[in-house]
Design goal:
FAD/NAD(P)-binding domain, 3 domains, 8-stranded mixed β-sheet, 10-stranded mixed β-sheet, globular
Length: 530
């Protein structure tokens, strides 16, 4: 096993920026993009001993990497599509992730409720194949349940017409917390993860990419940074970076929007999730317990624009409410929605595509004529394998010394045997939890709740600023904690107190506090149903 990273690494944005200004150096790899793929790639490179810089235009996991269904899974729907190789790879990576970050990821039971007689044998056989493909990294055997056992595991499932159920096991995690742990692990291996650094151009010599131009979003200062190889890991923005390299490049990404509704725990009493493999229009529906809430998702809607803050459409919300009512005994209404969040999938086009729901979720790796390496597609569960493949290719392109990837069993920062699914969300900090508790005792009121309806503490804002490179109120309330997703309205009420703590930690003034509160309210409005 790789050594676990336990003490908080010195992830200090101000120091990183000072080093870029004072002693610019040539990096081995420059990774553009601070979501799952970029963070994974930068970690793989740094762990191999390559001098690595990661540049993210906003905050780590600002996009879809913080807006997933919170599942570490093989992908039952891909099995239905016949993509056995993708499912096998994802199931292997699922097992590795649960071993390398057990404080973030845990085993989650799912039940498929059966309402038609033929579904039991059909899905029962499918789940046995799922078990078989997982092999030694399986999380538990699937089996057919009686109607009584199904109702016991899913007390809030719609009982009318229920015949029986099928139980199987997959993984669950906190996506944004995992992203922060990846950034911390990058730093611990000597890499430089930088948020709020927007890449505006690529530099070339002899027709080959040799670095990037980037702007510090906080100061407006421009930087030109050299790198032996540049990796484009920007997800739904991959085409924009490819066109910085070659404006004639055709679009590769077919973006798809996925919407999730967050309800209170009463809609799914117990710890078992519901998975509906095929709704009336052919989609997969999940109802998943997470952080004391119920997440219902997801949609798969083809879109043409990719904003940093996508918004759910009325028909998507209506679809989720309607279908949740079919399978839940308690029918949710718009008034029950605590938060609605939306992510954009970077699906890859191919000839003859028939809509985004049919597109494969495999990752695609490309090298341009000028040596820009692009990695896109894929999903959170397979981020590590995507990263390994990318760094293998990048090392060849950049003429770097050949070194094997050590990440198969590399324990991520915070690794701890404490369970990730405990009622106390401080457990998500893993080995850092005692130090976080100590921080809560430093300031007046820091051990108090951010809000009566939220499971977080005021002092976590100070911890986030000191050790996790949180720079804004949104960073704290959306990604260092998950307050925005758990209860958007409550998070808005907590924003002023968070802004005051952040201002003290970052040396900001009252004008900054006022601007941050206003900016956060604007963002949070997208997460609330009017």
């Amino acid at each position: 096993m790789g050594a676990a990273m336990t003490t908080p690494p010195n992830m200090d944005r101000d120091r990183y920026m000072a080093e870029l200004r004072q002693a610019p150096e040539r990096f081995d790899l420059i990774v553009i993009g601070g979501g799952a793929t970029g963070l994974g790639t930068a970690l793989d490179a740094a762990a191999r001993g390559y001098r690595t810089l990661l540049l993210e235009q906003d905050d780590f996991a600002k996009g879809t990497s913080s807006r997933s269904t919170k599942l570490v899974h093989g992908g039952v729907r891909y099995l239905q599509q016949g993509n056995v190789s993708l499912v096998m790879e994802a199931l292997r990576e699922r097992g590795r992730l649960l071993q390398n970050a057990p404080h973030i990821c845990h085993n989650q039971p799912f039940v498929v409720p059966i309402y038609d007689w033929w579904e039991g044998p059909f899905y029962g056989v499918g789940m046995k194949l799922y078990d078989m493909l997982a092999g030694k990294l399986g999380l538990g055997p699937s089996k057919l349940l009686s109607r009584e056992a199904t109702l016991k595991m899913l007390p809030n499932v719609e009982p009318k017409g229920l015949k029986n159920g099928v139980i199987y096991y997959d993984g669950q995690f906190d996506d944004a917390r995992l992203a922060i742990n990846l950034a911390q692990t990058i730093a611990a291996y000597g890499g430089v993860p930088l948020n709020y650094m927007r890449v505006t151009g690529l530099t070339k010599r002899g027709g080959l990419v040799q670095g990037v131009r980037a702007v510090d979003a906080e100061t407006g200062s421009e930087y030109e940074i050299d790198g032996r190889v540049v990796v484009n890991a920007t997800g739904v923005y991959s085409d924009a970076v490819r066109q910085l390299d070659d404006p004639s490049e055709e679009r590769l990404i077919a973006p798809s929007q996925g919407v999730h509704l967050v309800l209170d725990a009463s809609f799914l009493a117990g710890e078992t999730a519901i998975m509906v493999p095929r709704t009336a229009d052919g989609r997969v529906l999940f109802a998943v317990p997470w952080h004391g809430r119920t997440i219902v998702g997801t949609t798969d809607t083809e879109i043409t624009t990719t904003p940093l803050e996508p918004t759910a459409r009325a028909d998507e919300i209506a679809f989720l409410l309607e279908h949740a009512a079919i399978y839940l005994a308690k029918d949710p209404t718009p008034a029950d929605v605590l938060s609605v969040y939306c992510g954009i999938r970077p699906l890859v086009r191919s000839a003859g595509d028939k809509g985004t729901a049919a597109l494969a979720r495999d990752h695609v790796l490309m090298i341009s004529k000028s040596n820009l390496v692009t990695i896109t597609g894929g999903k959170w569960t397979t981020y590590r394998k995507m990263a390994e493949d990318t760094v293998d290719a990048a090392a060849l392109v950049g003429g770097l010394p050949e070194r094997p990837s050590p990440t198969v069993d590399l324990r991520l920062h915070g690794w701890s045997k404490e369970p990730a699914n405990g009622a106390d969300l401080l457990a998500l900090y893993g080995a850092d939890a005692p130090a976080v508790r100590a921080t809560l005792g430093e300031g007046s009121g820091w051990s108090e709740r951010l809000h009566p309806n939220l499971p977080y503490h005021l002092g976590e804002a100070a911890w986030a600023a000191r050790h996790e490179m949180a720079r804004t109120v949104e960073d704290v309330l959306s990604r260092r904690t998950r307050a925005l997703l758990l209860d958007a309205a409550a998070s808005v009420e907590a924003a002023p107190a968070v802004a005051v703590i952040l201002a003290a930690e970052l040396g900001r003034d009252q004008g900054w506090i006022d601007a941050q509160i206003a900016a956060y309210r604007s963002v949070a409005a997208n997460y609330m149903l009017s």
